[in-house]
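Q: what sequence does this backbone want?
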């Protein structure tokens, strides 16, 4: 069973801004242009990098990397503080450009979104032409570049947008989807992180063609519920629609470690990375929450969660990390090693522009 026929009728674009936060900083501050910069983190080695410029990426610097590691890789790295109010304003302008062509928009964060242009407002017809126009308008109006992926499904459009970054445009038509997926390295598949990729490679799965040889039952045995997703996606089956106005009940991040950890300092370093990712996702969604939850899975696969609820709403990295670290400190580890940590925030106040300041106690809320 290959890509389903109804997929071939859809026209989906995934727009992904290029090094968004860093590009905005370089645009607004000419002295940073052409320099290796990191948004987030600090030159004293504390904290983690939210994102970085392409000049920094050449040295191996990546988002969610500790500042300490980033400095070792790139000693001349320049650190800048995030300006989320500016990023939100720019993101709102980008969104207004999208709405010129379609109302079916699914934002994933401040810097990326899916657009369904099957029936576009301007009756252009060609998804490629629409993507070109959007990219050009972003460049002309905001002096920023975006990459676009175009296909008949969300999965392929998202992968395609990353294919020729920065300032790329990649179209994967219906007849090219299956060959494209078969040649795709397994670590490029959505939902395949470092640990899953390592497990797949041990099983002899290095690309889509290798994955396609496996039966659904066997994939489910190895990868649980994700097995069905892997089985379908490698055959080009992805019927997920572009869903505007998604409502999140919680925002979180988790990592399974390649080696189980019992060193509390290393565990706290991992919590820093997770807390930064959660803070960034909350800011992207313009959410603030008051319930912090820590998830811990031990080496024997037993799992616990611990939560605390604040008397104010926040999306601050410092506050999220402080409480996640405190929750971990009170976990009775019984000398067991930890294989997974997760951090999430829930119980939201949905922030509107100029609403409550981070850390401010609220007495009234919607």
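A:
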């Amino acid at each position: 069973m290959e890509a389903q026929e109804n997929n071939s009728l859809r026209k989906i674009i995934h727009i992904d801004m290029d090094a968004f936060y860093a590009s905005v900083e370089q645009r607004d501050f000419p002295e940073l242009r052409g320099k290796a910069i990191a948004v987030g983190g600090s030159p004293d080695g504390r904290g983690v990098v939210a994102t970085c410029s392409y000049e920094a990426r050449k040295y191996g610097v990546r988002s969610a990397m500790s500042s300490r590691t980033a400095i070792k890789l790139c000693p001349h790295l320049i650190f800048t503080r995030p300006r989320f109010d500016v990023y939100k304003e720019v993101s709102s302008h980008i969104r207004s450009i999208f709405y010129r062509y379609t109302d079916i928009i699914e934002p994933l964060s401040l810097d990326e979104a899916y657009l369904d242009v099957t029936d576009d407002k301007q009756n252009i017809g060609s998804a490629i032409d629409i993507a070109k126009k959007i990219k050009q308008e972003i460049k002309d109006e905001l002096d920023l570049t975006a990459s676009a992926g175009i296909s008949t499904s969300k999965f392929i459009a998202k992968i395609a947008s990353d294919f020729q970054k920065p300032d790329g445009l990649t179209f994967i038509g219906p007849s090219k989807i299956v060959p494209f997926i078969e040649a795709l390295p397994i670590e490029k598949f959505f939902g395949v992180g470092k640990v899953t990729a390592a497990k797949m490679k041990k099983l002899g799965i290095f690309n889509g063609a290798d994955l396609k040889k496996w039966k659904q039952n066997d994939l489910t045995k190895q990868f649980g519920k994700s097995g069905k997703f892997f089985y379908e996606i490698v055959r080009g089956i992805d019927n997920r629609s572009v869903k505007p106005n998604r409502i999140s009940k919680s925002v979180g991040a988790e990592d399974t470690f390649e080696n189980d950890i019992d060193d509390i300092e290393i565990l706290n370093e991992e919590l820093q990375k997770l807390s930064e990712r959660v803070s960034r996702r909350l800011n992207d969604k313009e959410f603030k929450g008051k319930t912090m939850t820590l998830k811990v899975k031990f080496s024997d696969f037993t799992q616990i969660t611990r939560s605390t609820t604040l008397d104010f709403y926040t999306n601050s990295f410092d506050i999220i990390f402080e409480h996640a670290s405190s929750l971990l400190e009170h976990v009775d580890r019984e000398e067991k090693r930890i294989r997974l940590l997760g951090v999430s925030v829930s119980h939201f106040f949905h922030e509107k522009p100029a609403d409550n300041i981070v850390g401010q106690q609220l007495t009234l809320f919607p």
